[in-house]
Amino acid sequence: MSSRILVIEDEDKLAKFVQMELSYEGYEVSVANDGLSGLMAARDQSPDLVLLDWMMPGLSGVEVCRRLRQTGAKMPIILLTAKDDIADRVAGLDAGADDYVVKPFSIEELLARVRAHLRRNEPQDAEMRQFETLTLNRKTREVFRGERGIELTAKEFDLLDYLMAHPKQVLTRDQILEKVWGYDFMGDSNIIEVYIRYLRLKLEAEDEKRLIQTVRGVGYVLRD
């Protein structure tokens, strides 16, 4: 499942902008426009991460953060704040926030912080990945479609592993190049299409249904 993010922000234009950017990155995003409704949404939805404005009518972001931590909520919380004094930063972190981003911020920085905190929250190096009838063993580097073993090259395996680590999340070509081929890859970006075709041929060799779907103009997604 794609990660679920709750944005608690009373400035409507900013909330919609952040929601749009996060949705484009493949996250499931919900928005609350004040502290009390945000607190209730966080408790009801149990999101994977909360983006929380500091200054809001009713309950402040710091108070929302404190109450969530008092009830045992463990998800990462990133404060969005215009306050940049050391004392304010300390107050936010003492309330239980994991990080803070000072307004005005670049969306690239915010997305990087979100990715970093979600990565820390993931189970590390899970040996087995499963999606539908597809099973991948990261330790032995074996892949099965049901009972049928599938021989993959090293790069085919790495590509499938990355797709299976983010099921149902649309992954852009840039994300795939960065994670599978690395920052320093200087070759043709069409390499992704070539390897997707190789994977499909092997995964669908016995007329199994397609699991790797193309999202035109964006990238690829592993879904039924």
The CATH homologous superfamily of the largest domain is called Response regulator
Termini Cα gap: 12 Å
Overall pLDDT: 89
CATH fold topology of the largest domain: Rossmann fold
Could you tell me the radius of gyration in angstroms?
20 Å
How many separate helices? 8
Strand order of the largest sheet: 2-1-3-4-5
User: Roughly what fraction of the amino acids lie in strands?
Assistant: 15-25%
Structural class: alpha/beta
Low-confidence stretches: none
Estimated helix fraction = 40-55%
Q: Biggest sheet: strands, sense, closure?
A: 5 strands, parallel
Number of domains: 2
Output the CATH class name of the largest domain.
Alpha Beta
Series of H and E elements: EHEHEHEHEHEEEEHEHHEE
Tell me the total number of β-strands.
12
Shape: elongated
CATH architecture of the largest domain: 3-Layer(aba) Sandwich
Summarize this structure briefly.
By secondary structure, the chain is an alpha/beta fold. 41% of the residues lie in helices and 22% in strands.
Describe this entry's structure for a reader.
It is a single chain. With 224 residues, the chain is an alpha/beta fold. The protein has 2 domains: 4-121, Response regulator (Rossmann fold), CATH 3.40.50.2300; 128-222, Arc Repressor Mutant, subunit A (Orthogonal Bundle). The chain is 41% helix and 22% strand. The chain has 8 helices and 12 strands. The protein has helices at 12-24, 35-45, 61-70, 86-94, 107-121, 154-165, 173-181, 191-203; strands at residues 4-8, 28-32, 49-53, 77-81, 99-102, 128-131, 134-137, 142-145, 148-150, 171-172, 212-215, 219-222. A 5-stranded parallel sheet has the order 2-1-3-4-5, with helices on both faces. A 4-stranded antiparallel sheet has the order 6-7-8-9, with helices on one face. A 3-stranded antiparallel sheet has the order 10-12-11. Helix 4 (86-94) links the parallel strand 4 and strand 5. Helix 2 packs parallel to helix 3 (61-70) and helix 6 (154-165) crosses helix 7 (173-181). The two termini are 12 Å apart. The model has no long low-confidence stretch (mean pLDDT 89).
